[in-house]
Amino acid sequence: xxxxxxxxxxxxxxxxxxxxxxxxxxxxxxxxxxxxxxxxxxxxxxxxxxxxxxxxxxxxxxxxxxxxxxxxxxxxxxxxxxxxxxxxxxxxxxxxxxxxxxxxxxxxxxxxxxxxxxxxxxxxxxxxxxxxxxxxxxxxxxxxxxxxxxxxxxxxxxxxxxxxxxxxxxxxxxxxxxxxxxxxx
Length: 185
What we know:
Keywords: Membrane, Transmembrane, Transmembrane helix
Transmembrane segments: 20-42
Structural class: mainly alpha
């Protein structure tokens, strides 16, 4: 509609040679550009708000449905040495340092990693829930992460179904690609 209005003004200008009609033809295009810019701005703002809401949901889930995974991971860690008390009492700078240290983690042993892996499996419905939210809100990075974790869980479940008395971590140790998945999770 706005583009056709501009075209009508341009046609009239062509027929009458009145320069004022050039200015009139630009107004609908400027309105269209403004609507587009405001729309993009609102879309980005809405996406930022959805990410903030997802952060609150994650926080809730880590304190409820994923608490066992969280605690199993803490118990298995050799470095950095983390405890709930240490995190709870830390200053912002100390929390940032802990986060930096967590970029390179080390577990007490391979055996200590097995309960962590099994807690990932136990929390499968949480990963599905995050995947659905990522699809709904168009969070491509979160969607890719959830697919990776769900594929990992499928590998663990398949192994455990075929080898109920064996530890998955020892199988992963034998296969470099599988061990990389373990480390990434």
